[in-house]
Amino acid sequence: LLNEALKYHFMPEHRLSHQTMLMTRPRCAPKVLCAVGGKAGLFACLESVEMYFPQNDSWIGLAPLSIPRYEFGICVLDQKIYVVGGIATHVCQGISYRKHENSVECWDPDTNTWTSLERMFESRSTLGVVVLAGELYALGGYDGQSYLRTVEKYIPKVKEWQLVAPMNKTRSCFAAAVLDGMIYAIGGYGPAHMNSMERYDPSKNSWETVASMADKRINFGVGVMLGFIFVVGGHNGVSHLSSIERYDPHQNQWTVCRPMKEPRTGVGAAVIDNYLYVVGGHSGSSYLNTVQKYDPISDTWLDSAGMMYCRCNFGLTAL
């Protein structure tokens, strides 16, 4: 539906058939990327938002966040974008300060506006956020003093948060993904660089340890396609990474794939049409706006149009 609305706005030749298609077409797979907030320098915290259209390889600006924010979690639930926790920049009596957030914002594509929602129990930056069975899960992170292993979920129907079983390990700067009805928490820092992975079964409300990655990673990207979990980039405690690995849940095994053209940490990653888009980040020497996409069938990388802004430790999601 979003894709049809955008097509209606930007491509007038499709308007004749728009109303019929909008009423009859079922929900389709994600077709656009949204890049939200992040950092563009040591002291440059962003509130800007932009959207990428693969069809014409271009970006446009959208309504900004209510406050500049980075190191937050991001997901899509009911065709709306949720931005969860992170570190936000506030101004009080002309003095700027940053704090770890338990706040949540939601973007509605129909109105291009952001709305504040119910706050989490805990403040969390560098957390993992996923959606499973219509509920939003916020995992781990850092509250400004302690690394966390707690997990809470947001239930939209009742507009409240509930605690679920905590992870086995404290994790921040990690990645979370959903595959085959399970939640995976991968790598991260807590308080050392990790390559371990654990899996949550909602039917049992419990976590189990599964196969570890080849590389330790923090601040890396993750995407799910073709029945595999892909992790890409990040930092292993020594250097910025260009490597990518693929996890097979049936074999409980990781396989190393062809690396990116350049290393990057603090990246965004998302999947459209079975391509893994890896966006922005930091190369070790500069903040990036560049975009590469990975084709898992041919095990190759292609370049796409860069973002309007350089971004690191930001949110990227497919909608």
From TrEMBL:
Organism: Chunga burmeisteri
Origin superkingdom: Eukaryota
Name the record gives this protein: KLH28 protein
InterPro entries from the UniProt entry: Gal_Oxase/kelch_b-propeller, Kelch-typ_b-propeller, Kelch_1
UniProt keyword annotations, A-Z: Kelch repeat, Repeat
Keyword Repeat: yes
